[in-house]
Amino acid sequence: MLTLMSLCIISCKDFFDLAPTDTIKEENFYKNREDLNASAIGMYEALAQETHKFLLWGDARADMVTTGQAEPDPYINEFVVNNVTSNNPYTNYAGLYRTIARCNRQMEKVYDVQKLDSKIDNRDAGAFYGEALLLRAICYYELVRTYDKFPIITSDYAETITYVDADGQTATKPTLSLTPEQISAIYRMPKNQQEVWKLIYNDVLAALGMLPVNYRWNDQSLSAKERYGRVSQPLAATLAAEIAIWLGEYQTASSLCDLPIKNSNQSLGTAGTWFNQFSAGYASGHSMFLMGYQYENSFETNRLQEFTSSVRKDGGKYYLKPVSSVVNALFTDNVSLTDADIRAQASYKTVNGDTVIWKYIGLDNVLSMRAGYQSNASWSVIRSADAWLLKAIADLQLNNYASAFNFINMVRTARGLVILDKATFNYTDKVVMDKLIFDERAREFAFEGRRWYDLMLQSKLNGKNILADAVALKYPLKDRTSIRTRLMDEKNWYIPVNPKLWE
Prior knowledge:
Blueprint: H1 2-17, H2 33-48, H3 51-60, E1 65-67, H4 74-80, H5 94-116, H6 122-146, E2 160-164, E3 170-174, H7 180-186, H8 193-208, E4 216-217, E5 220-221, H9 224-229, H10 233-246, H11 250-261, H12 276-279, E6 287-291, H13 295-298, H14 304-308, E7 320-322, H15 324-330, H16 342-346, E8 348-351, E9 354-357, E10 379-383, H17 384-397, H18 401-414, H19 430-444, H20 451-462, H21 466-472, H22 477-487
Antiparallel strand pairs: 1-7, 2-3, 4-5, 6-10, 8-9
Subcellular location: Cell outer membrane
Organism: Pedobacter africanus
Protein name: Starch-binding associating with outer membrane
């Protein structure tokens, strides 16, 4: 019996030691440009699975979204009522860190692979490195505006860790040789948010100088899918401009916006093609960087249909819906006096008596819906219109009222609205212009995970807690005072998280 048991143990050991035949071992990977490109595509995969969380973090808490269910899901409703607990599963930011880990891995492998593949020149290597650096910055940008505390990880920990030891010396050791205490000391928490903002800004500016112009990689123009599904130089400039505004560097922000605005591959597009960016894989002119899904080829989906559709047979759970009183007022244009704004027709609708977020369940701006369980609407991270509207914000802060007014009119006319007249509109009133710009952003990016952060930024620029005032209005009259009081404390703008989660 003992002999038989020994043979079984040996057999089991041999079985578990065998690598699956379809698995690529790392020593056989990272050998050439094709491997780097495959690794680059993999960086985006983890992020693409988090879009429903971005909707919760950036919209469910804000003024334009509430719950659609008569008996709300308790975890979803925590976001709607702005009382999120640390054990809420939707506060888990593991997907962002999976992306960060893959970006760190890519950056630490790029130049090793360049030595093995003579076809990779310095420009191409820099492009791969800059792509990973920018995508990592996007993840930290999401984190710094959502969480008060989170770890900073800037190295690849799969093989080795470089850190400063107790004697102040920089040391590099194999990961598996470290104690849990040593690893915990390396996964450090930043001293303050300013440290994170500085890291993000510097990384985005560095990536801006490394990424190729007009989506050219390895001397080849990317396909439409890759062009908008991967980060780019126009994206880096636009994101750098947005961060510069948060940091109070308005002149820099205004100048950075000029790069995508003057780029022939970016435009405001037209009202007729505006909805294509949600019903199709992308929309030329409108798209800049998005999470795309291909249901037809590989059944790639997200959870946006589940979260926003009221049609149960199609998998809709109607977790979230528009706040009718807020969006109806926002999309009413007192100047045009028409229903010409394509965004009013396509952002939300009434379907079978239910008001729904239409962007992720519609196939046109009328009433055609996507098939059940085929939730593959794109999730836009940054769009071309961002550059125009960020330019307006920056120029307003520089007291360049005429320029800010001009860029707002460009967006309005591209969406089907009439031009605001300088002779009748008080465009030199900073308070009036501030509201005009952020209302325009609310219409342009409704239900795209932006509104909460825009209210944060607007509050910062005005030195007044606009967020608390705006968000309180979506609640019943009896609840508004308590909600406003809670949100007057800026500490409550951030989502709590289990402090052990990052470990």
